[in-house]
Amino acid sequence: MHPDGHVSWFLNGKLNVCENCVDRWAEETPDRIALIWEGDDPSHSKRITYRDLHTQVCKFANMLKRLGVRKHDTVGIYMPMIPETVYAMLACARLGAIHSVVFAGFSSHSLRDRLDDAHCKVVITADQGVRGGKVIPLKSVMDEALKECPLVEKCIVFKHQGHDIDWTEGRDEAMRPYCPLEPMDNEDLLFMLYTSGSTGKPKGIAHSSAGYLLYAAMTHKYVFDYHPGDVHACVADVGWITGHSYVVYGPLCNGATTVLFESVPTYPDPARYWHMIEKHGISQFYTAPTAIRALMVHGDEWVSKHDLSSLRVLGTVGEPINPEAWRWYYEVVGRKRCDIVDTYWQTETGGHLLTPLPGAIRCKPGSATRPFFGVEPVVLDSKTGQPLEGDDVSGVLCIKKPWPGMMRTVYGDHERLLNVYLRPYKGFYHTGDGAVRDKDGYYWITGRVDDTINVSGHRLGSAEIEHALVQHPGCAEAAVVGFPHSVKGAGLFCYVTMNNEYEVNEGTVNELRDIVRKEIGPIATPDHILIVPALPKTRSGKIMRRLLRKIASNDTGSLGDVSTLADQQVVSDLINAAQKLFNKR
Q: Is the dihedral of CA 415, 419, 421, 422 positive or negative?
């Protein structure tokens, strides 16, 4: 790994990402369906061919050109999961503009910070979004953000829900259906996505054109065993890297039919995913363990009444999947015949780093198994920084050599890339995650390095304890954090949610504690177990462990930025529950 972070693939090469994702398929297979839009309302869906996709992208690109967007300009996108969002991304790529998609659920404050840091010249939004039956006032949020974004010159608005906004009818209908492609250098930036940083300031993770596109397409093809005619459904939002790589760029570069899902897994009922799979004949389905666990709670009957015979590959992303959820996914959803790909990667990596390959690698529930082609993972001793040789070792997960999809910089702050990813362990890319390489050479992600808890000199991984807790028949989800302990240095505080049908009694906490003692040992015995209705999660479904640590430490005077929380009431409920627990001491 070069110490200055310099990475280059296809040196002196030229391409246009939009040409690879749209034009060539519009010419070769114009009538093939490119996008299937599944609206929030299950009765609303739309199919867009590659021919139509090409026309819409060109019209959009011409509109951007008319507004002064040029090569290397940055365009902000704050949109719901609708086809126009994909048109906007591809139109930017066609012109050589850099797009920065912001998840359409962030507050005006968070949106402002991202648009300002990205130096956006033009922004794109919609009147409103809708998700799970709830209206999201996107234009109002954008208006508030733009009050403090002096660099933004123009704002484009799509009318998605028919909300009353300032509008000039017919103004854009005359846009020409063809727009010339802008030749791009291999290392020109395609997009940036903002991800949370330990300092609190989001990092603009910037990805290249050629290397990123190759890696997104290649991982999509081999990890999901894609074949022409398959219908690929990744239900992530395009506001996150999973949506970029496995809703848009990977599938479209391979000429696939890709699903754009606007809703949530439980709207209008817990059969939403399964109804969609049957309706569209989906071949590959990709979702998060959080969603799987949420659906497990509702029982098997919602799944079993649907024809899921079209499914061939089931994927998980975003966090390690606990073995119980893995087995339910395999047995109930996949009917014991679909391959499961438990993928490990990051916004920074562009695509999968560790993953099974369907039919080629034997799975172990909860393990991300082995590296993708060309990826060289190493497990380092956290103190010495030296690689741990052989198998049956645990330490810090790093990557030895660059790969095509690797981030190129932190936008406007390359020094931050060096400090966060390359300098902690010289010569390696530092993932920030711990890992175990077992006796068979399989990799198990043990959680963020800062999620390792030192109890009486023993380093315990939060994920390991969480896996033990969810073996309880009533446990739906668990999150474990450390808190200061006067004797042990750190104690273990466990937050647990239970299945709806499970009746909690006075012995439930002791049952949970005994499972941890049995599975891991007395050293891992939890100090506190708090049974709660819900865990604090971001809008992308990730647990905000920083808040859990503060609550466990009884340090709730200043919680910091909570703008990314999906439901802030959850935090208030947790604080109240924890106070009752502390008062019993």
A: positive
**Structure-derived torsion over alpha carbons of residues 23, 25, 28, 30, reported in degrees to the nearest 10:** -90
Query: CB burial class (10 A; 0-12, 13-18, 19+) of residue 109?
Result: middle
Per-residue confidence of the chain (585 residues) as pLDDT tens digits?
888 999 999 989 999 999 999 999 999 999 999 999 999 999 999 999 999 999 999 999 999 999 999 999 999 999 999 999 999 999 999 999 999 999 988 888 889 989 999 999 999 999 999 999 999 999 999 999 999 999 999 999 998 766 555 555 555 555 789 999 999 999 999 999 998 654 447 789 999 999 999 999 999 999 999 999 999 999 999 999 999 999 999 999 999 999 999 999 999 999 999 999 999 999 999 999 889 988 998 999 999 999 999 999 999 998 888 888 999 999 999 999 999 999 999 999 999 999 999 999 999 999 999 999 999 999 999 889 999 999 999 999 999 999 999 999 999 999 999 999 999 999 999 999 999 999 999 999 987 787 778 787 666 778 889 988 999 999 999 999 999 987 787 899 999 999 988 999 989 999 999 999 888 877 889 999 999 999 999 887 889 998 999 999 999 888 888 888 888 899 999 999 999 999 886
The CATH superfamily assigned to 16-202+230-256 is: ANL, N-terminal domain (3.40.50.12780)
CATH 3.40.50.12780 residue spans of the chain: 16-202+230-256
For 189, list phi and psi in degrees, rounded to 5.
-70, 135
Domain 456-583: what homologous superfamily? Answer: ANL, C-terminal domain (3.30.300.30)
List every span in the chain annotated with CATH 3.30.300.30: 456-583
